[in-house]
Amino acid sequence: MSTSLKRLTKLFKKQNLAVSKDGAVYRIQNIGVPGAPISEVLLPERYNLDLKAVKQLMSFAGVAHPNGGEVRAAVATPDFHAGSSVPVGAVVATSRDMIIPQAIGTDIHCGMRLHAMDIDITDWQSKKTELVEKLRGDLLLGTRNLPMQPRSFHELFNNGLAGWVRSAKLKPMGDFIETDFVQLENELGCVYSGGSEEGHAKWAPESLVNLERSVIRDSSLATIGGGNHFVEFQIVDEILDRKRAFQLGVKKGQISIMIHTGSRAVGMHVGNYWIDKARENWPSTYKYPSSKIFPLYGNRATEYLEAMNTAANYANLNRLLLAELVRKRVREVFGKGIEMPLIHDAPHNIVTEESGCFIHRKGATPAHFGEPVLIPGSMGHPSYLMMGLGNQRFLNSASHGAGRDKSRHDMFCRNKAGEDLGLTCVDCITLKEDRRIEEAPAAYKDIDEVVEVQVQNKIVSPVAKLKPMLTFKG
């Protein structure tokens, strides 16, 4: 046992946690909770376990419902780090009679979307300023024009993107009068689960489903959000698997657009409602759990899935509309014939039913065998297009990014001290200078190491490496 592992073991033992290491995988057992599953965390060699993140993960691993629901497995991907209450990079499997709303939080169905297009890099550089000015209004200043009929929202919440496309194409409005809805329909196959989950409008905010209104303008729709969310222009720098890249329609030298955002106000509405509901429905004859984590059991868990899917449908549309705004402005600047096909869109904050369990992913993306996986770096480091290998040990999940290595507070302190944050060559468009500091490259783990440890452990295989050129931050 190495000296550092001995120190770590001693530190964790004080917290009633037993730690061992198997290659790059840490195995952690909560000695104080009999029957709780051993949790496993995959980390690159030079990064140490974060005690706060581990304690958060172990709290979820120990969740059980008095009526019989239980956690069966808990793992973490290499972007593992502490969150406000839920660790990022956590994957929790429960029995099919129990769901933990807190395990995915309120940014329901947050995810990544990737498009690619053939624009000569010289042409890009010469017209970039014009494109930035158009997109600054759409993405940061709220000048986009997105009126929508209430029936389109109903179709979205009930039937997902397929329902929304059917309804919206009957009477296109605002910025999307010239949208190619046939293309959107054809691209649904590149969206996780087809972009159409079984939701219901009754779980959506009342302001978005009021049929008495002729038009609804939703200030939350087609927005990036704060934190680590972004819209980024990249260049396909390397092809690492020619066959897979060809199948997905990705070529070296292409300009790609990666979008990271979620369900915004709708996710907040649904998530908070059900986190509160889980607490209210805790059996009155039992004490509250010491972890203050409340699961849902039986029919309530089924209801939650429908509500969660309602927010998931909204998140899918949020990313789709952001991509359409970009596609619209790109065609205005570079020509109407520019194609910008969708490569893949997948969530990383979601509950899915798999292999007889409910899999809760928080900041972890599905990585089933043969499934595309998007792993972004920071705005100063490359991103990766990968292919899932269906690793059962890690519950068919990969990291959703590099993962924070330094807190936002730490980054402000480092900036005040004049330290290099890695922003020298970063082209970031934002209205908030604080966003550049807290999301600077130095805040994140090394993306190459995070990807490599997942390749070595047969979670994903590499397809293409994407280099950032321009990032919009909300």
Protein topology:
Blueprint: H1 3-13, E1 17-22, E2 25-30, E3 39-42, H2 51-61, E4 71-81, E5 88-95, E6 98-99, E7 111-117, H3 121-141, E8 147-148, H4 150-168, H5 181-187, E9 216-217, E10 230-239, H6 242-248, E11 255-261, H7 264-280, E12 296-297, H8 299-334, E13 342-347, E14 349-354, E15 357-362, E16 364-366, E17 372-375, E18 383-388, E19 397-399, H9 408-416, E20 428-430, H10 433-438, H11 447-456, E21 460-473
Parallel strand pairs: 3-4, 20-21
Antiparallel strand pairs: 1-2, 2-3, 4-5, 5-15, 6-12, 7-11, 7-13, 8-9, 10-11, 10-21, 14-15, 16-19, 17-18, 18-21
How would you sum up this structure in a few lines?
With about 475 residues, the chain is an alpha+beta fold.
Label this structure with key terms.
474 residues; alpha+beta; tRNA-splicing ligase RtcB; eight-stranded mixed beta sheet; seven-stranded mixed beta sheet; 21 strands; 32% helix
Structural commentary:
The longest helix has 36 residues, at 299-334. The N and C termini lie far apart (45 Å). The protein has 11 helices and 21 strands. The chain has 474 residues and is an alpha+beta fold. The strands form 5 sheets. Strands 7, 10, 11, 13, 17, 18, 20 and 21 form an 8-stranded mixed sheet that branches. The protein has a 7-stranded mixed sheet with strand order 1-2-3-4-5-15-14, with helices on both faces. The protein has one domain (3-405, 444-473): tRNA-splicing ligase RtcB (Alpha-Beta Complex). The chain has helices spanning 3-13, 51-61, 121-141, 150-168, 181-187, 242-248, 264-280, 299-334, 408-416, 433-438, 447-456; strands spanning 17-22, 25-30, 39-42, 71-81, 88-95, 98-99, 111-117, 147-148, 216-217, 230-239, 255-261, 296-297, 342-347, 349-354, 357-362, 364-366, 372-375, 383-388, 397-399, 428-430, 460-473.
